[in-house]
Amino acid sequence: ASVRSVTILGATGSIGDSTMDLIRAAPERYKVEALTANSNVEGIVKLAKEFNARFVAVADESKGAELRAALAGTGIETGAGESAVTEAAARPADWVMAAVSGAAGLKPALAAVDRGATVALANKECLVCAGDFFMDRAAKAGACILPADSEHNALFQALASGSRDELTRVIITASGGPFRTWKAEDIEQATLAQALKHPNWSMGQKITIDSASMMNKGLEVIEASYLFALSSDEIDVLVHPQSIIHGMVEFTDMSVVAQLGSPDMRTPIAHCLGWPNRISKGRAAPLDLAKIGSLTFEAPDYARFPGLKLAYDALRTGSGATTVYNAANEIAVAAFIAGKIRFGAIARLVEATMNGWVRAGNLAPLSSADDAISVDHKARKLAASLLPEIAA
Ligand code: NDP
Ligand code: MG
To answer: Separation of 256 CA from ligand 1 center, angstroms?
Structure first.
């Protein structure tokens, strides 16, 4: 097999870590072109040396000198600042993992898309922000988008059993998070430590909080809509506490095709890394259904998890509403982490921001990264201005 050159954006994060682990398992197959982080110089330097990367960038400009000093004499090029992360994505690698967290991942992901790379997309926020044009732009550039998010990767695999006109709906599963069985009053008061205790998946901090609020599933409904060109009524969410079935596709004959796997991100990432072939599992755990015993399912509860319903509203509204949904959620999660708002206020801030946005007459279709980033910034400002009222 030929050597694949790879770039990992967000290499020091949770998805980055799983990706590096798969590459580590078969080092002869990959050549690392570029690695990026935000500010974790120590982590990125360690990876750069281990994998002999050609280029390393940190988004935090103030860390540039430290990065340069740490890699002096290694022959590894360095860069710092937002543009350096985009430059890393633009360098010629066959395969790019887009695993920056948040809307900050949009420009770098687009840089990889525009040069027609194969892009494993973990960064769901970037698709939610730029859904209006992201997939079109990928098609125009001849880029191949492979969903790394476990549910979407499952749908991608299941969709191969039929054609688009034979599809009747897709189902993405949700673990239900740590508050699945909690009463609304208790969810309202949940602490940061409680929100960070995910029952099945080990993930970065922001997405773990989004799982507890089910905003993550909301982002994923939007992600599925844009990725696969599905309308909101073609996408269902099903609570499945064991997180073994990740996604299912129902076809016109009522056959339902599912993808299963242990809750380990290395499995969907391995699918993206090997695509169109299958690679070895590395250290990912095999699935032992006899040991698991039973798989259970529940309907999602929009009353206790209003953030999920808001995602459907945003999707139906369109014209930047999903960008606003994401931006408001990023502000809300940061405020919750900082102890400024209660857990239950996350969805209220998102709702208030979306309503304020519509009332101000700000809805308009997005056609470029600048449009998406401008809506993102304005929506963050609006969300921040509504914070005191929501916190009270
Ligand atoms: P982490 O917080 O663990 O890692 C984020 C990575 O992005 C780190 O390398 C971080 O660098 C870097 N980063 C953060 N902010 C910036 C910025 N402003 N500019 C450039 N780089 C930045 O996140 P996860 O790995 O959990 O998630 C990454 C993406 O994948 C998210 O969009 C998430 O929704 C998605 N995803 C994650 C899953 C998971 O299991 N973790 C599952 C499915 C999707 P540094 O280390 O220096 O802070
Ligand atoms: Mg997911």
So the answer is: 32
pTM of the model: 0.97
What is the number of other CB atoms lying within 10 angstroms of the CB of residue 322? 32
> Is the predicted pLDDT of residue 284 greater than 90, yes or no?
no
The closest alpha carbon to 91, from 14, 32, 48, 33, belongs to 33
Q: How far is the CA of 13 from the centre of ligand 1 (A)?
A: 5
* pLDDT, tens digit (0-9, with 9 covering 90-100), for 106-135: 999 999 999 999 999 999 988 999 998 999
Decide if pLDDT at 285 tops 80.
no
Q: Which tens digit of pLDDT belongs to each residue from 177-226?
A: 999 999 999 999 999 999 999 888 888 899 999 999 999 999 999 999 99
Of the bound ligands, which one is closest to the alpha carbon of residue 200? 1
Q: Which residue puts its alpha carbon closest to atom 39 of ligand 1? A: 203
Whether ligand 1 lies within 6 angstroms of the CB of 124 is answered as: yes
Q: What is the mean pLDDT of residues 227-248?
A: 98
The whole-angstrom separation of Cα 16 and Cα 14 is 5
Half-sphere exposure for 72 (CA within 13 Å, toward CB): 6
150 known ligand binder = yes
Distance, in Å, from the CA atom of 105 to the CA atom of 101, rounded to the nearest integer, reads 6
Answer for the pair 19, 44: CB distance below 8 angstroms, yes or no: no
